[in-house]
DNA sequence: CCCTGATTCGC
DNA sequence: GCGAATCAGG
């Protein structure tokens, strides 16, 4: 991949928006975050260190329109960051478990996040998720690391697979989506818009 | 550990 | 110009 004008534009835009180099790299594809950072420097739009108030950030749009004239607020309107929470499910269960953790005697970064005997995250019934999602989920489960309860860490997907009452049970264990309790695929089935899961007959 | 950006330096 | 390797910090 080369730095076409278009790709550079995306880079500039995202960088000015405060996106991280890795996020930009992921968006562009075909490049690593190092490549992005390198390019950022070559383009001379580096200044982003702490303490630097950034005098003249990004004029972006030349016409400040002196006075009067409608403000024309163009809010970023990022589709992301939607209301996803969904209280009272796996998340809260896990979150609480983490909060409770007496820690103190925790050896190192090998802490388990779900105390033994804690209720397990709910396994969405098959008829509660879309067929597509279910299909892709199956695919992911083939790649699951099949971790046991004790092997889970803050950054392993906590999606349960199989029947907890049998030996045929494990957790996905794939790398979690930044900040989330599940991997990318499972975040998809875990955090569904109300509209999507609504009335899916039971 | 994971992630961030910053720099270096061979290509 | 490019970006992997490496550095420095959170």
Automatic annotation (TrEMBL):
Entries under Pfam families matching the protein: GcrA (PF07750)
Record organism: Meridianimarinicoccus roseus
Provide the taxonomic classification. Answer: Bacteria, Pseudomonadati, Pseudomonadota, Alphaproteobacteria, Rhodobacterales
Q: Where is the composition biased (Pro residues)?
A: 54-65
- Gene3D superfamilies attached here? Homeodomain-like
Task: Extract the ranges annotated as region (Disordered).
Answer: 42-137
Which residue windows does the record flag with biased composition (Low complexity)? Answer: 66-108
Q: What is this protein called?
A: GcrA cell cycle regulator
């Amino acid at each position: 991949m080369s730095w076409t004008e278009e790709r550079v534009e995306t880079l500039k835009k995202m960088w000015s928006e405060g996106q991280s180099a890795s996020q930009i790299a992921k968006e562009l594809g075909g490049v690593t975050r190092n490549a992005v950072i390198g390019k950022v420097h070559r383009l001379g739009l580096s200044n982003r260190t702490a303490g630097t108030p950034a005098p003249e950030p990004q004029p972006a749009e030349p016409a400040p329109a002196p006075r009067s004239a409608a403000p024309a607020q163009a809010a970023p309107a990022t589709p992301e960051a939607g209301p996803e929470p969904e209280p009272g499910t796996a998340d809260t269960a896990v979150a609480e478990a983490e909060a409770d953790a007496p820690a103190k005697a925790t050896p190192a970064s090998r802490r388990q996040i779900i105390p033994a005997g804690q209720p397990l995250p709910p396994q969405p019934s098959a008829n509660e998720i879309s067929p597509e999602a279910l299909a892709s989920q199956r695919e992911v489960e083939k790649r699951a690391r099949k971790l046991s309860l004790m092997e889970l860490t803050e950054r392993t997907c906590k999606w349960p697979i199989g029947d907890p009452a049998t030996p045929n049970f494990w957790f996905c264990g794939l790398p979690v989506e930044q900040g989330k309790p599940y991997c990318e695929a499972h975040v998809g089935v875990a955090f569904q818009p109300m509209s999507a899961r609504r009335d899916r007959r039971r």
